[in-house]
Amino acid sequence: MNKQFDLGSITPLRYFAGIGILLGLLFGSISADEPGKPVWLAYLQWQIQSLLPMGLLVASHLALHKIAWFDRQNPWLKLCASGACGAVLFAPAALFIDVYLSDETLESSSWWPALLEECLNVLFPVVVAWVAINAPWVLGFKFQKELTSLASVDTKNHKPLDPAQEKSRLPEPAFFSHANSAVQGELIYLKAELHYLKVVTDYGSDLILYNLKDAIDDLAETKGIQCHRSYWVASAHVRSFKKQGRQGLLTMSNGENIPVSRSNISKVTEYLERLSGSD
Length: 279
What we know:
- Helices cover 47% and strands 19% of the residues.
- It is an alpha+beta fold.
- Helix 4 packs across helix 5.
- The N terminus is likely disordered.
């Protein structure tokens, strides 16, 4: 995954909101010439019809991501599923906008047939748009930010390191340059959420547009393990491990519990036993 957009750092909020705004402007300009409709109303209508479904799509994907079955599926299938859910959730709002912001009329007895028709109308374009918006991240593209060296800075106290400390310190992983400097401390765990990465340190957390696999590659010199398809944990911050049925649970230094998938229980158990044996 070495394909990059050399455009600098971008947050998930900016990415999805920016695309929503651009789509609203595009479709608003196309419909601005409709007779009998004020230009401002056309733009307002399309901004709502772009930003609202974008929010519903992100929310749908994050909600479905909490389901174990969904989390195991192919990324393209997951996008189609969350796109379909977002489209269905958006259909009532789309119908409301068509009726109240346009000059359409609808009898009360026609609401259910109209709602079904609206679902069918928005399903395909919303799913296709959602897949296209997220395709760069599934294909391995990422935004590349010019790296700044953090190896010479004590991220705990945000002070320069002395030469002896600097020599013994591991280089900061590349993805840290995308995170807010206020949370750049000791890494506790990483979590993949949608196509961005939640970086959790002893100073807090931040969301960045970055692939979990690439982040783990950046951590080659940092002791840790991928315990779940969506999680990587730093071994220094693991406080306890227990099995729960056919799965497991890691308790981290910040008090959070991280799931261990069934397929990774043996690997995590052996890894932690080796660490405790080497202490």
